[in-house]
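Sample intake sheet
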Amino acid sequence: MKNRVYKYIFSEFIRYFMVVIFAVTAIIWTIQAVNFLDLVTEDGHAFLIYLYYSFLTLPKIITKLIPFTFLIASMLTILKLEKDNELIILWTSGLNKINIVNLIFRISLLVMLVQITMSSLITPTTLNYSRNLIKNSELQFVPSLLKEKRFNDTVEGLTIFVNSRSVDGIYEDIFIRDEGTTLTNVSGGKGSSTIFAKSGYVSSDEKSLVLQNGNIQRDVKDGTISIIKFKKTSIYLSGLSTKTTSEPKIQETSTLHLIKCLDGNETEIQNCNRTNDFQKDVKIEMNKRFGMPMYIPLISLIVCFILSSRKDKRISAYNKYIFFILGFIILVASEITVRYSGLSLKNLLTYYLFPISFVPIIYFFLMRTFKYENLN
């Protein structure tokens, strides 16, 4: 009978957990996806690249939401069983409340392992892949490079400025500065060049910029400048790559590389140096990946206090709010204190010992509480 009860409670928890994490993730992802539209409108990336990049951020969102989702799902599960009087049936049939506590605690350990896997393996991999995706993708929309009265340096080594744009799509007073490695059809890759044009327009396929009435000034190796005047010329701009960070950020670096970086034996790891500030950031990132999930079992035991009976019904009615707020405060505190966990050994030990030491203490109080309830 116990196994059937455990399977039922576990299935209810999974149902609430999936619904909550899907709903909250969808909201946050939608907001972020709107912000990522700049990749298309400002940087000129293809729409499929934008969608792919947006979806690759989902593991990061899910990882952040797992502790909060666990808090909500576990509370909803207990309150649902209580509302339907299913808990009373379980108690009268001889099932001890501490058995339910043990079940919820085991579920929390499973969720903790899921978050550790997400934060240490899946999320860094997807974030690094998304960065490389943007880095290696080519521009598809030339109009995105042409902004009125604004210097656009989205592409490495290339600066574009237009003074104005008419209603019929004609750009006036165009300035283009190429450092010599981008527009090889203009500079030949041998030196920097500057292009001035009185007007221009984007070709029908939106891949080239057609310039009218201007000149090209090329820097020659002997220090002179060669000037070529033109009435009409076309510059192919599609296919260029945007400039982006060449090295992955700490949150995009694999856990194995971060461990080797802290160890100091690996000197050829990308995005690793021995400065104090960088080492502190690495420690904080490692604590986010392995320390924060350890607060989930602590939250599970706090939620279990809702199972306790109260003679005063007025106090009992506020139990769910009290313990939810307490669990939420612990989650927020873990998010805040993790930023200081890498500053010193004392902070590090405090961050890890807090959940480890309080779990057995709270479990002991739960056992005493439910033991006296059974005696009554």
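Comment: Residues 2-137+250-375 form one domain. The radius of gyration is 30 Å.
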